[in-house]
Amino acid sequence: MTDLELGYMAGIFDGEGSLSITSRPEGKGYKSPSHNMYGLSIQVSMKNRHVVEWIHNNFGGNAYRYRQNGGAFGKGFISVWSMTGSQAHNFLGLIVNLLIEKREQATIALKFPLLDYGHNYGVTNHMQEVRESTYTELKDQKDMEREYNIDS
């Protein structure tokens, strides 16, 4: 991957991307019902299918299209690229220093401790606290940015 391509990807992600740490209570079948489940995910959504295919071909993850009948994109097909967990973490590590708009969000997300498994098996109390605080810090950052953009 060239510096130019990483810069291009950072620009796409700054403008069309989103990142989140999700939280949900653990339910039946999970090993540790006293903890919430947390997960890191990133996504780029746009009408341009070819750009999403380029992202998918160069960075991996998942890509799909769906038909939308209104909303922010209007009518037509929307192309989406996404990544979760360690893939998302590694991707953010590649572009964090090239981001402008989402640099603070990415910096916070990179503090999120990842697990080898898709559940909370083996999560220590300390790790759970760090996951919860990172979740809250990212949520607060996004709320602050949203308020700033509304007031601008």
The computed structural class is: alpha+beta
Ends: how far apart? 36 Å
Helix content: 40-55%
| Major β-sheet profile | 4 strands, antiparallel
- Enumerate the spans where pLDDT stays under 50 for 5 or more consecutive residues: none
- The total beta strand count reads 4
- Please tell me how large the radius of gyration is: 17 Å
The strand line-up of the biggest sheet is 1-2-4-3
Mean pLDDT: 87
The proportion of residues in beta strands is 25-35%
Series of H and E elements:
HEEHEEHHH
Treating each run of at least 4 consecutive H or I residues as one helix, how many helices? 5
Question: Main traits of this protein?
Answer:
four-stranded antiparallel sheet; alpha+beta; 152 residues; 5 helices
What's the quick description here?
With 152 residues, the protein is of the alpha+beta class.
Structural summary, described in words:
The chain has 5 helices and 4 strands. It is globular and about 45 Å long. The model has no long low-confidence stretch (mean pLDDT 87). The chain has a 4-stranded antiparallel sheet with strand order 1-2-4-3. It is α+β, with helices and mostly antiparallel strands. 46% of the residues lie in helices and 25% in strands.
Write the layout of secondary structure elements.
Blueprint: H1 3-16, E1 17-25, E2 36-46, H2 49-59, E3 62-69, E4 75-84, H3 85-95, H4 103-109, H5 125-151
Antiparallel strand pairs: 1-2, 2-4, 3-4
Helix pairs in contact: 4-5
